[in-house]
């Protein structure tokens, strides 16, 4: 993995006392941004934490020195430096005079997306989620280069704030052969997205920070035209999108549905439930937890449906080790409902070779070599005969207990277990995982235990 940051070109535009301090700093390569506020000491923020640059207080002259040496600020109060990826944002007072600057270092990191290379080759649309500053823009910049240079695809970048390809009219080399369309005003981004498809025949369109209902609708329109999408949006996980009405179109939209009495009884749910309205605009979702650890949803449609039903959810976690090897593991999460997770996670990860990934997922992570494990179950509202039949058929070493204190997990009927707050509280205090099934069904209990033992 290599990094190109043109850091010296940014430092050359800062006051001399800041330049001198940062040029001689031991952690210069770990610099994230430099903050200059009128009447305060300049602050440098590193990946290791913030620190003051010097004892000198920032004056009007220091701010003016920097603003004169960079490009003009846009309507979004952002500016840049020609042929670099650096971004300078300003804070203004009531008279629109600049009283503060945030100078953020832009880096082109080559090799950062090797962890998801197989997903890019699949040709499916990818949505990247993460909180601000986690590196989403750096990731899609590298995706643009790989898709255009190494895979030979026609790639168009809709670059609203010039963060992906730099502030100059000539795009930064970090995007490879991909073409860039600039957006004059942020509110016009959705129009440029549609224009890119209609005028330039791309195979792939890349959009940074999808944030409005119009942009989500434009992304859906592009997906229906058969163009591969790669986009980013703010959020820690898929649940955030479900709870964000303007962006629900990205994952198919959410609607209330009223079930018949028989269907509600069969599902073990209330009559009014949430369901997905249509197919999502994206097929794959990537949650950026950390720079070296990403959570993958290889089928957004299935993940959303499972979240809405309040059942099991299998999340694939990819981690890059110090030796730059990719480890793929699975984490099984049980969700009681859309708005309340049980947070009872299985404290076990399943390493999966990258070539077996899709095969393992299609087989629901069933394994045949884990019969040596022992599981102690406290059955709640499940008949003894049913549990004995499950133990007979399962083949694992499963023990039943009537004392919850001795149990490793609790399995019960969903409609009964969700109402027993005392049992839930006791399980939480003793760190005992709770699992539910919708019916008194041998098949459901067997599938559940196979998930747990996987």
UniProtKB/TrEMBL annotation:
InterPro entries: AAA+_ATPase, P-loop_NTPase, PTPase_dom, Spore_III_AA_AAA+_ATPase. Gene3D superfamilies: P-loop containing nucleotide triphosphate hydrolases. It comes from the Eukaryota. Keywords: ATP-binding, Chloroplast, Nucleotide-binding, Plastid. The keyword Chloroplast applies. It holds the Pfam family PTPase. Signal peptide: none annotated. The keyword Cell cycle does not apply. One of its GO terms (molecular function) is ATP binding. PANTHER family: KINASE-RELATED, P-LOOP CONTAINING NUCLEOSIDE TRIPHOSPHATE HYDROLASES SUPERFAMILY PROTEIN. This is AAA+ ATPase domain-containing protein. The gene is ycf45.
């Amino acid at each position: 993995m290599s990094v190109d940051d043109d850091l010296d070109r940014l430092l050359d535009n800062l006051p001399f006392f800041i330049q001198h301090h940062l040029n001689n700093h031991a952690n210069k390569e770990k610099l994230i941004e430099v903050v200059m506020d009128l009447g305060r000491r300049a602050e440098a923020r590193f990946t290791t934490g913030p620190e003051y640059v010097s004892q000198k207080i920032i004056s009007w002259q220091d701010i003016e020195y920097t603003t004169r040496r960079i490009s003009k600020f846009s309507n979004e109060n952002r500016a840049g430096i020609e042929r670099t990826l650096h971004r300078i944002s300003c804070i203004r007072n009531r008279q629109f005079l600049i009283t503060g600057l945030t100078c953020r270092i832009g880096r082109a990191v080559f090799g950062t997306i090797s962890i998801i290379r197989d997903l890019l080759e699949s040709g499916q649309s990818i949505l990247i989620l993460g909180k601000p500053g986690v590196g989403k823009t750096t990731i899609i910049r590298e995706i643009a280069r790989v898709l255009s240079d190494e895979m030979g695809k026609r790639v168009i970048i809709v670059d609203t704030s010039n963060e992906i390809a730099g502030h100059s009219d000539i795009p930064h080399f970090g995007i490879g052969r991909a073409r860039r369309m600039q957006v004059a005003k942020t509110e016009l981004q959705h129009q440029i997205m549609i224009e890119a498809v209609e005028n330039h025949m791309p195979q792939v369109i890349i959009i940074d920070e999808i944030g409005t209902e119009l942009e989500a609708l434009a992304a859906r329109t592009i997906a229906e035209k058969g163009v591969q999408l790669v986009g980013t949006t703010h959020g820690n996980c898929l649940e955030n999108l479900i709870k964000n009405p303007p962006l629900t179109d990205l994952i198919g939209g959410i609607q209330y549905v009223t079930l018949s009495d028989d269907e509600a009884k069969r599902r073990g749910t209330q009559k009014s439930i949430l369901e997905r309205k249509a197919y999502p605009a994206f097929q794959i979702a990537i949650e950026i937890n950390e720079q070296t650890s990403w959570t993958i949803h290889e089928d957004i449609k299935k993940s959303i449906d499972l979240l809405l039903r309040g059942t099991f959810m299998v999340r694939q976690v990819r981690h890059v080790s110090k030796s730059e090897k990719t480890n793929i593991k699975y984490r099984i999460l049980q969700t009681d409902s859309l708005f309340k997770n049980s947070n009872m996670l299985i404290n076990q990860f399943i390493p999966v070779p990258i070539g077996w990934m899709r095969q393992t997922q299609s087989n629901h992570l069933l394994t045949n070599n884990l019969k040596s494990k022992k599981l102690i179950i406290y059955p709640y509202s499940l008949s003894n005969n049913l549990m004995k039949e499950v133990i007979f058929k399962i083949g694992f070493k499963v023990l039943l207990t009537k004392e919850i204190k001795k149990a490793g997990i609790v399995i019960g009927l969903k409609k009964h277990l969700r109402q027993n707050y005392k049992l839930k509280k006791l399980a939480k205090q003793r760190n005992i995982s709770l699992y539910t099934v919708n019916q008194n069904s041998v098949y459901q209990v067997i599938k559940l235990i196979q998930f747990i033992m996987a």
